[in-house]
Specification:
Length: 167
């Protein structure tokens, strides 16, 4: 397995729309394993392939306390969204920034698993939020895109300042 570098907002590659996976083969299973290692090491509760500059529709998520419930979603698609919830979100591509975002409370998705079998899942709470956050990444959207223009400008300035300090 390998740790993969994570793109940082406002890198324009985070705006690319990821392409569907035609076939779940060894290269996709290796990508998912590398993404999981990268997510656990960060640490985070999710990661989309877009964030590691691979523009394929692959997502890994583990919202468990013990970090022992890895979920891999290939070609995830929202099939149902119900209700609304507002919660604080962070992003491994926007380090140190947290803000409130409104999301659906419950979602249903279709996806393929690591064997290429088609599956469905219903989720609520943090898992539902994380699924929506990661599907946004696959569509080229970062959570700060849901915030006001003023907040986005402040975040860009803060991250640019951080980058100068660590350079
Ligand atoms: O996609 C990402 O950038 C990962 C992101 C997922 C996410 C977090 C919160 C709400 C929605 C989606 C993160 O994992 S940020 C880090 C984080 O939330 C966390 C880190 C360590 C322990 C617990 C949470
Ligand atoms: Zn993110």
């Amino acid at each position: 397995m390998a740790l993969l570098p994570i793109l940082r907002f406002p890198d324009p590659r985070l705006k690319k729309v990821a392409q569907p996976v035609a076939e779940v083969d060894e290269s996709i299973r290796k990508l998912a394993a590398d993404m999981a290692e990268t997510m656990y090491e960060a640490p985070g509760i999710g990661l989309a392939a877009t964030q590691v500059d691979v523009h394929k529709r692959v997502v890994v998520i583990d919202v468990s306390e013990e970090k022992n419930e890895l979920r891999v979603f290939i070609n995830p698609e929202l099939s149902r969204c119900e209700g609304a919830q507002v919660g604080e979100e962070g992003c491994l591509s926007v380090p140190g920034i947290y803000d409130k975002v409104e999301r659906a409370e419950r979602v249903a998705i279709t996806y393929m698993d690591l064997d290429g079998s088609r599956r469905t899942l219903e989720a609520d709470g943090l898992l539902a939020v994380c699924i929506q956050h990661e599907i946004d990444h696959l569509n080229g959207t970062v959570f700060v895109d849901h915030l006001s223009q003023l907040k986005q400008l402040r975040i860009k300035n803060k991250l640019a300042k951080q980058a100068r300090v660590t350079a």
